[in-house]
Structures are given as C-alpha cells and as structure tokens.
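Case 239 in the screening queue. Each case pairs one protein sequence with one candidate compound; here the compound is uracil. For every case the pipeline is the same: read the inputs, emit a complex structure as tokens, and attach any notable structural observations.

Predict complex for case 239.
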Amino acid sequence: MSKDAAVIEATDARRGLALVAKQVMGCNDCGLCKGRTNAVPGEGSPDASIMFIGEGPGFYEDQQGRPFVGASGKFLDQLLASIGLDRRTAFITNIVKCRPPQNRDPEPDEIAACAKHLDAQIAAIGPKVLVTLGRHSMQRYFPGESIGRLHGQPRRHSDLIVVPMYHPAAALHQGSLRKVIEADFARLPDFLTRKAGIESMAVPAHLRSGSGAIGTQTAAATPPTAAEPDAESRQMRLL
Ligand code: URA
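Case 239 output:
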C-alpha cells in the first residue's frame, strides 16, 4: 500500500472509531446503560494490527470511561510490556461497553445488543489479529469451546486470526494461571511476526514523547493501587 493510501485508511479508521464511540456513549440498547457512569468504547491506535477484547468494564473503567485501567489493566500492561508491546499501538476494548452491575457476567442479550459496536470497531480498524481475554470474548468466535483447551493457540476465524487468552483478572489471582498467561503472551511476538506478518510492534515516534516509552504506562493509564471492588468474587467466573 502506498503511503498516501495508508494515511487515508488511518484517517477513515479514526473517523469510524469516533463515530462508534459516539454511538456507544448514547446507546440505550440494553439494560446496562441504566447503571453506567460512563460507557467505555475502547481506545488505542486506529491502525492497530492487533486488538485485545476483554469482557466488560469494571468499577474503575466505568468511572474513567477507559478500558483496562484497574488491577487487571495493570497486569495487562505488564503482559504487553513483557513482549515489547505498548497499549497505544494496539486497540483495547470489550464485548460489552457498559459495566455489568457488581461486575457480574454479561448476559447473552447484552452481548448481542453490543455486538454491533464491536463489529463496527473491527471493521473500522481492520486488525489482523484479535486477542480475546477470557471465555466470554472467546465464545464470540468459538461458541461452546473451552478456554482451557484453546488458550494461547491462534485460530483462523473468517479473515481474522483469533488468539484466545485467559482473562488477566483470573490469571492475576491464581498462581498457576499466571504462569500460563505469561507463557501464552511470550509466544505471541513470534507468531505475530512470522505467521501474521506484523512486522513491528514498536511505538511510533509521535507517541514516544514524554513518559511513554515501551513498557511504561501512560499517566492516564496508571491504575489505582486498590483492588477493584467486587474483583475477587469474579475471578473464578472469568475462567
Ligand atoms: N476487565 C475487562 O474485561 N475489561 C476491562 O475493561 C476491565 C476489566
């Protein structure tokens, strides 16, 4: 692709994402809108080759309107840093964009109502690889499958490659799973470069100023030190 075409594509993606974000913020298509402080559309690079899809916003995400800024977000940032990936070069979102009450699992009708937003984000960005975090986002692509069987293994889904991973919140609180998710992430770069043709995961120059070197968190992404309310009770359900 020529440089001009790439610029046009990135501009279109940015516009597309802005439109989805606007629609998400005004969305009343399921009951989750009633309890939200902020909808959480997602964030990252409009020309990301890799997209991370979690389950749904928790307490701090709902407060800040940003994905993965709580305890599991801190762990996700560490996992990304361990493979030289910065969240600003990827796109991070969830299957539901509003916080389920008490961080319960999203219901099938809520996931279905929100699917159009995620579909539109994927269409706008056109990533090569989707990394699903936890069983709910995995089941969007592989219904009926078990995360224990599929984790860490790239699989084709139409013209996308989907890599199911355990949810960072689950892995964070279970020593054995933590090692598994770390090992699964450690295998990602080789796969991304050799099989998915993603050449560079480095942070582009325009994002590199200030405190934003690879592996460090942006100020806005710095998570709170306290554990998320209700987080403990949801660890097992996230598997
Ligand atoms: N857990 C998720 O699945 N998504 C978030 O954004 C935060 C925690």
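Case 239 observations:
- The pocket of uracil is lined by residues 54-58, 61, 67-68, 70, 72-73, 94, 169 (CB under 6 Å).
- The beta strands are 43-44, 50-54, 91-94, 129-133, 155-157, 160-165.
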